[in-house]
From TrEMBL:
The entry's keywords: Membrane, Signal, Transmembrane, Transmembrane helix
Organism this protein belongs to: Streptomyces griseochromogenes
Residues annotated as transmembrane: 380-398
Protein name: Squalene cyclase C-terminal domain-containing protein
Recorded superkingdom: Bacteria
Organism taxonomic ancestry: Bacteria, Bacillati, Actinomycetota, Actinomycetes, Kitasatosporales
Amino acid sequence: MNVRRSAAALAAIGVLAAAAPATAAGPSPSPKVAVPSGLFGKGDPTYDGVWRQSFALLAQHTLGERPSASAINWLVGQQCDDGFFPAFRADPSKPCLGKDGAQADIDATAAAIQALQALGEHDGEVHRAVGWLKGMQNKDGGFGFSIEQPSDTNHTADVIGALSVAGENVTALRSEGKTPLEALSELSIPCSADGGGAFAYQPDKKGKLAANADATAAGVLGALGKGFVIEPGKARDKAPACTASGKPTPAQLADNASAYLARTLAKTGHLTSSLAGAKDQPDYGNTADAVVALAATGSTAQAKKSYAWLEKNAGNWAEQSGPAAYAELIFAAHAIGADPHDFGGTDLVRALDATGPATQTAKATHSEAKQGKHDSGTKVWWIVGVGLVAGIGIGFLLSGRRKRQQP
């Protein structure tokens, strides 16, 4: 499962467990589910099917590829009548919600919106999903793991990104007068405090904010109104610093958070996992997210250093984690203008494509190659025949160009 998504899910589970320790010991082991045709990845999709599919399709589109129609149709078929996307809908013919139905998932819906908006020709699906997301806003202006849960940085940022990509004016989205950006501001740690500039995931029981690198990377993009994909921009002459002010603007919140990430990454080049039992373990996914966040604020010097660390160390992680991990690394490469075909000896594009249905571009190339071979062969013998009739000896003719085929 994607690191950002799993961290948010575990945090939400922790909130539930604290509220009802007798009944909320965590989710039961997921059943073994057959991977449907059209879905990226081979792992059990119960908790991340829509998420990883959306990331894969968005990454392929960012690379200029035309994703498989079957892959796009699978994602579209996951949408429920109310407009939301579940984490995974095993049987799209059955209604959602209810005791045995697919449950609403804010993360999955936000990711699906970004993918379908980028692909185009899915205005109806995007419009319905956007309408549902708006209805999930909490009283403080933000968004949580579900409608019953308090707002947190990750989900608020992901929703801001999805709505912004869909062309919505996030500053006009208010709940009891408060906007999502105001909710993010409340989760930002003042520069003078420990972890200054960072975002917290949520306040603790006493209302205290603790720096969370995962939430901080998400918060940068949320404050800037950006989605998962960042176009390469001009580097700043001087990296952002944490600047105290009475009420920071969204741009200042992003700069403050970026400064925190740069300080943290400068120590080792990577972030470390905050999950229980993962002492000093590198967090590859969140490091990739941090690269994108730094690039979004023009902090490209540290972004490139951390990307170089990923090139040396994240190949095995991506191979084991699957399509969403490859997509995260592709987003990081795109954000700093690096070549995703040459990632420490790995072609991220080919690796991602190999986890799902062949792209339409690959199919067209394969078809053209076969047709080109047939046409060139016919042309050779026609020319040879004419040459013989005319008494001109033609020994051979070089034919056809070999077209590169995607996996």
